[in-house]
Amino acid sequence: xxxxxxxxxxxxxxxxxxxxxxxxxxxxxxxxxxxxxxxxxxxxxxxxxxxxxxxxxxxxxxxxxxxxxxxxxxxxxxxxxxxxxxxxxxxxxxxxxxxxxxxxxxxxxxxxxxxxxxxxxxxxxxxxxxxxxxxxxxxxxxxxxxxxxxxxxxxxxxxxxxxxxxxxxxxxxxxxxxxxxxxxxxxxxxxxxxxxxxxxxxxxxxxxxxxxxxxxxxxxxxxxxxxxxxxxxxxxxxxxxxxxxxxxxxxxxxxxxxx
Amino acid sequence: xxxxxxxxxxxxxxxxxxxxxxxxxxxxxxxxxxxxxxxxxxxxxxxxxxxxxxxxxxxxxxxxxxxxxxxxxxxxxxxxxxxxxxxxxxxxxxxxxxxxxxxxxxxxxxxxxxxxxxxxxxxxxxxxxxxxxxxxxxxxxxxxxxxxxxxxxxxxxxxxxxxxxxxxxxxxxxxxxxxxxxxxxxxxxxxxxxxxxxxxxxxxxxxxxxxxxxxxxxxxxxxxxxxxxxxxxxxxxxxxxxxxxxxxxxxxxxxxxxxxxxxxxxxxxxxxxxxxxxxxxxxxxxxxxxxxxxxxxxxxxxxxxxxxxxxxxxxxxxxxxxxxxxxxxxxxxxxxxxxxxxxxxxxxxxxxxxxxxxxxxxxxxxxxxxxxxxxxxxxxxxxxxxxxxxxxxxxxxx
Lengths: 259, 398
Ligand SMILES: Cc1ncc(COP(=O)(O)O)c(C=O)c1O
What we know:
The complex is a heterodimer. By secondary structure, chain A is α/β, with parallel strands linked by helices. Chain A has helices spanning 3-13, 30-42, 62-73, 80-91, 102-108, 110-120, 136-144, 159-168, 190-202, 216-225, 233-255; strands at 19-24, 47-51, 96-99, 124-126, 148-150, 152-153, 173-176, 207-210, 228-231. In chain A, strand 8, helix 10 and strand 9 (228-231) form a beta-alpha-beta unit. Chain B folds into two domains: 56-89 and 210-394, Rossmann fold (3-Layer(aba) Sandwich), CATH 3.40.50; 92-199, Rossmann fold, CATH 3.40.50. Chain B has helices spanning 26-40, 43-57, 67-71, 92-105, 119-131, 141-146, 148-156, 171-185, 202-210, 212-225, 240-246, 275-278, 316-324, 334-348, 354-361, 363-369, 388-394; strands spanning 12-13, 16-17, 63-65, 76-82, 110-115, 134-140, 160-164, 189-191, 231-236, 256-264, 280-284, 287-291, 327-333, 374-380. Pyridoxal-5'-phosphate binds at residues 90, 116-117, 119-120, 195, 235-242, 308-309, 353, 355-356, 381-382 of chain B.
């Protein structure tokens, strides 16, 4: 079983729940992002999501857009994603999943990208704008190396698509909490519960909920019905206003939502 | 027998096309596809659209022979398909009326659109007013400045215009913002995409709505000259006016198809929007197609004096036609386009849009590669009123 899935199941069975933390690679610089990931890992994140800055991030709200734009303006290069992963891996064992829009992967070469993920010590990848219907090359490349391949399901997904996307995923299934882009939401929709319920009914892969989670209370709530809570915008914002200390503080705060 | 080129209906055109979008949008694309598939076979829909074109758009558009203009290029005859005479001043309305009718069928009360030159935004705002729909138009901040007149038009028509300040602040970023809006409001909202790019079914559906241009032209040219033209020319931004006039001729092998894209400062400088000449295949805005990108797969910024051609992507069907060798794509610089704009204005009394002027500038090249006496049909995709600010400054008139 994949390392990510093992952790999700153990944390579920022990009643703790799981916190997945997103941060952009290269933001604001390569070394800063390495320090950020290490701090998140040491202060309560069970799984790290390494975001690849991209010029056209259609799933992202303003906070992540501006952060990734800044990383690119500071000269971020795609290959540095793997350097970040290697440097974080030297310091912590926490599993890492890359989160990348599709075109950079395509340009790098799908098989080469998968190989680089494996070589650098990442566990797999989440692909926000790649649906399994278009993802045969990635699924092949990942399967060959036993890398996790995480696809999305959404409140709008038909039952047939929830089933197909769950079956195509390894590691976990990414349940999008709400119809919208990344960013904080005061209230998480009832929709999140419904979509998680559909995935759970299939009894296949575990599922984590992402988009809109920013408080310990929301982390607790999500973990009461799903296998993990994914947080991105709130971490980026905490870093922006309070630097590494602010990020550390935010991680500890959100981890208090775990059992 | 090899299948006809014109029979291709997506989602793929060879290796191009597809649906590279976040999962939350798939249900909306499925709904749109199903609604469109049902509508195109439903006479009440096709009749309603045809009636709207007759009574509102002003179709069929006429063909004008540009004799004094053609004389500048030697022994060729140039025929203009006058999409500039459509209501709102460009071809964009063909697609907009079709999609607005579909939005009504789907029970959506709000439409959103992206716009570069503002022509698609104006057409969308017009349809929204006509059908009583709410309308939000996303426009890159750079474009709101160079097409200020069209911003005012959209507002007067009752639309909300949102200036997009992220990324390169042009058409590409306006599309990103429209996609983000759509993800969040998909139940109430139809995304009225303005060109033949984007995820399936947009490239096929938008092409179909514009294919009326080629269908009319074919009959008109036969009546006018007794034969098919030797070549068809159109400017290519996303590619909608080009595919609209090409489509009826795709299987007429003797008819050459020429797309003219924006070469900005020059195709060998970093400042151009010549996607098909200088791009490589990749995924942008939901489809696999040629696109301008760097070695890391980051989208490159495009450059053109023409806001409507200032786009680093292109519709997947054009990528396919290029690779098949069925259509030729050629770059026209800002300076060449502006010369052609002036020439058309002063020889024919027709002020073309700067986008369209790229196709007109192409006559220089075509007059060299086509046989003597060749007939060229040009899609006069839009009028230049919106460009008076840019042209006035360029020519030192204001
Ligand atoms: C008059 C005119 N022609 C052409 C275009 C380019 O778009 P397309 O390539 O989709 O026809 C535009 C876009 O705004 C336009 O306004």
